[in-house]
Amino acid sequence: MSLDTSPSPAGRAGDPVYYGGDYNPEQWPASTWREDVRLMREAGVNLVTVGVFSWARLEPQEGRFDFAWLREVLDLLEGAGIGADLATPTASPPPWAATRYEDLAPVDERGARYSHGSRQALCVVSPNYRRLALAMTTKLVDELGHHPAVRMFHVHNEYACHVPYCYCDHHAASFRAWLQRRYGTVEELNEAWGTAFWSQGYSSYEEVLPPRMTPTFGNPAQLLDYKRFTSDAYLEQFLEEKQVLRAARPDVPITTNFMGLFKPLDYFAWASHLDVVCTDNYPDPGDPDSTAHSALHYDLVRSLNKSAPWLVMEQTTQRVNWRAHNVPKAPGQMRAMNYQALGRGAAGLLFFQWRASRSGAEKFHSAMLPHSGVDAPGWAEVVTLGRELARLGRLAPARVQAEVAVVFSWPNWWAVEGVAQPAQDLTVQGQLDWMLRSLYQRLSTLDFCQPGEDLAPYKAIVVPSLYLLSDAEGANLVSYVEGGGTAFISFWSGIVDERDAVRLGPYGGPLRPLMGCDVLDVAPLPEGQVLEVEWEDGARTTATFWADVAVERDGKVLARLADGPWAGRPAVLATAHGAGTAYYVGTRLDQAGMARLYDLARATASPGPGPGTERTVRRDGADRYELLVNQTPTEREVQLTWPGTELLSGAAVSGRHSLRPWGAAVVHSKEG
Ligand code: GAL
Questions:
Q1: Which has the minimum average pLDDT: 9-23, 255-269, 454-468, 485-499?
Q2: Domain housing 543
Q3: Is 646's C-beta closer than 6 angstroms to any atom of ligand 1?
Q4: Considering all CA atoms of the chain, what is the largest pairwise distance in Å, rounded to the nearest integer?
Q5: N or C terminus of the chain with fewer C-beta within 10 Å?
Q6: Are both 428 and 384 inside the same structural domain?
Q7: pLDDT at residue 8 in the model
Q8: What is the pLDDT of residue 603?
Q9: What is the CATH number of the domain that holds 651?
Q10: Is residue 187 part of a domain?
Q11: How many angstroms separate the CA atoms of 306 and 449, rounded?
């Protein structure tokens, strides 16, 4: 069933803002469940995820199932008007399964097998795992899938989270089959992997292994394909469960929970299979950049499937327990962080977890209902937020439309962070932080697009180190600019093809028409080295990390390196191409330099809402909602774009508006 016809529990007129969390009733006596449901109602909870880690309780021995207790929980939820996001428990096989079937557990690159006693000790390719997971899913949906409390199905949990890569023999066989489908003959595989290097030529597929432990660098093309294969292998297992659920209940939407910028899975490829895209986000409140990281996280997740609603499936109310030092959110900060997600289009705000555990590895992780119960200050925050959200249901169908897109791809991420690169410390996160920092201060929100996606809806695109791209993707970016778009492209872009083979000649491959220069070599700079950059008007900024060794060609040089071994080389160029303009940046400009760059284009020159505050807009036809969030512990003033009604207070507002510490405002107005 396609996304268009599949009902979604979110994003439609009349839907509430979903609010709730993971509910693990199996950790508590049945007497506690009634109290849970009563307190959920008090907090305005309307959706909880059940069953995620219940496999051992639902199937205590192979083939012996017990669904009665979960049915009772669903009855209680239904009686209280609370929906259930019913999860398949397949992320944590029970000890009997691991004991009976050794191959259920994954194997590391040295050949050591993981043990049960934690969670996610599973090999997703193991036929035994697949058979048991499918049997569990089939039985679950038979027994409980038609319960009236069920609003959504949640497959597995955080696929690939703890042990992304398995190197067992099942994986070896499956990898070979995947490669054979991709390349056909072994000669073509040898060509694709460049195995002439280091005597790696294969005489048959049987000799091919997963990238197990090797004396030094493995083959980068093999490593890249193993990442592609692994993402596909997990997706195949997801689709297997999805098919069973869909066949039984075609009317119930299906999801799984993503983790934002999570490297092992190509979420763009996955997201088209989800009816609702869900994500788990645990920003570190002790990190001053956490607000910016969350903005990026939510914008990315919203962009993964542009026609599906998305929601926050997990976050913590105060603190996690898995960092070395778990700083809590300041009082009020949790609320601000939720309005940030709402402003970026979230259809729901859920937490891990409803009630804080007594035992187990997460007993010191905060929850909606803390250990100390309803007297804990965190509980009051949970209740306040739930009551506020109940007033914001009209936001459900309102969408976010960004004007600027970031071009991003998982295969590029895998390849650019591959082995033995010129700068091993060139990371995707680092490049995003560098290129987006000042943009996020200016623009309310950004979309993320794959290099082959239709970019025409955007006024500008930002391209951070798109090292790997296909000819067709390159042509797409070039034709976007030709058609009138503006592109900001950073160094180390267009370097290799899909096989991670270098595109010869000056660097840049299909992006060269947009670069304005010939990049003849590259120079990662010594740590701490700061180069001067001189702009056309004589202004000076600085640069670090990297310098292209380039000569100008058809571009206009806007800035040059002004000292160091490459003094005089172009650092920033503008190239008119067709009806558009491309800006190429051959070094890591400081933020003052980036600000000068973004000032050059109308789409990126916005002054922004002011430090520490965020402004986002959601629209539904003529209804316009401006969300303003103060992400600081001190009062801030913001300028409202349009006069309107502030929905949390009901007050008419216009002009300058004051936001309390960690405060938020949702201002409704009509277009035109
Ligand atoms: C997530 C996971 C939850 C819980 C949470 C703790 O990764 O899905 O089950 O472990 O982290 O922060």
A1: 9-23
A2: 404-601
A3: no
A4: 78
A5: C
A6: no
A7: 62
A8: 95
A9: 2.60.40.1180
A10: no
A11: 10
Say yes or no: 24 and 129 in one domain. Answer: yes
Name the residue of 315, 362, 363 whose CB sits within 8 Å of the most ligand 1 atoms, as the mutation to test its pocket.
362
Ligand 1 atom, smallest distance to 316 CA: 12
Co-location of 393 and 355 in the same domain: yes
Question: Rounded to 5 degrees, what angle do the CA atoms 484, 604, 402 make?
Answer: 80
Q: Does 393 share its domain with 452? A: no
Distance 353 CA to ligand 1 centre (A): 9
Please confirm, yes or no, whether 314 is among the known catalytic residues: yes
Name the residue at shortest CA distance from atom 10 of ligand 1. Answer: 362
The contacts of residue 183 (CB under 8 Å, 6+ apart) are 189, 192
Question: Of 158, 241, 381, 498, which is the active-site residue?
Answer: 158
Gap from CA of 100 to ligand 1 centroid (Å): 27
Number of domains in the chain: 3
DSSP, collapsed to helix, strand or coil, labels residue 265 as coil
Residue whose structure tokens are 């050059």? 600
* CATH number of the domain enclosing 555: 3.40.50.880
> Are both 384 and 454 inside the same structural domain?
no
Q: How far is the CA of 138 from the centre of ligand 1 (A)?
A: 25
From residue 619, give the alpha-carbon distance in Å to each of 9, 57, 74, 400, 641. 19, 45, 35, 6, 14
Q: Is residue 6 part of a domain?
A: no
**174-187 average pLDDT score:** 98
| In a shared domain, residues 249 and 233 | yes
Assess whether 536 and 439 both reside in one domain.
yes
From 397, 420, 442, the end of a domain falls on: 397
Put simply, whether the predicted model's pTM sits higher than 0.85 gets the answer yes
Task: Establish if 216 belongs to a structural domain.
Answer: no
| Confidence band for 295, pLDDT divided at 50, 70 and 90 | very high
Instruction: Tell me the average pLDDT across 85-103.
Output: 98
Q: Is 671 a known active-site residue?
A: no
Answer for the pair 236, 159: CB distance below 8 angstroms, yes or no: no
The active-site residue, picked from 59, 188, 236, 314, is 314
Average pLDDT of the segment spanning 607-621: 95
Given 397, 426, 448, which residue is the final one in a domain? Answer: 397
Q: 552 Cβ partners below 8 Å, 6+ apart?
A: 516, 517, 570, 573
Residues 500, 572, single domain; the answer is yes
Whether 406 and 458 have beta carbons less than 8 Å apart is answered as no
Which residue has its alpha carbon closest to ligand 1 atom 5?
A: 352
User: Do residues 122 and 129 make contact, with C-beta atoms less than 8 angstroms apart?
Assistant: yes
Instruction: Find the DSSP H helices in 120-219.
Output: 127-144, 169-183, 186-193
429: cis peptide before it, omega within 30°? no
Closest CA to 475 of 513, 505, 510, 450: 510
Q: How far is the C-alpha of 282 from the C-alpha of 334, rounded, in Å?
A: 11
Q: Looking at ligand 1, which residue's alpha carbon is closest to its atom 2?
A: 158
Per-residue pLDDT for 594 more than 50?
Answer: yes
Distance CA(276)–CA(266), nearest Å, equals 16
Query: What CATH number corresponds to the domain at position 76?
Result: 3.20.20.80
Instruction: For residue 560, tell me if it sits in a domain.
Output: yes
